[in-house]
Amino acid sequence: MGKRSEQVGAETVGELLEDEYARSILAETSREPLSAQELVDRCDASPPTVYRRINRLQELDMVEEEQELDPDGHHYRQFSARLERVTVELRDGEYRVSVERTESDAVERFTKLYEGLR
């Protein structure tokens, strides 16, 4: 997978990473894709708390969502961490925060599909 880096607000990233549930969701989904219910269980949090943090992490593109199909034919969502590294630099009296993310699995699958068609 490739990497993508982006400058973001220091306060925004700091506030999010200061939150224990957001950190827990990132840690758990960095190991394997998980459903919201699995995150509720592993993070010892309520469903609304997990969904709020997932939404916030998605706003900063630190978590991606994928639809899965279970054996019964029902769709459910799984979440995977995209965050790879956060770098904070102090230069000339200003903080610069860079967030590196792994490339989206969806982008990677599309690229492979496209290359397979050529």
UniProtKB/TrEMBL annotation:
What's the domain of life for this entry? Archaea
Transmembrane intervals: none
Protein name listed in UniProt: ArsR family transcriptional regulator
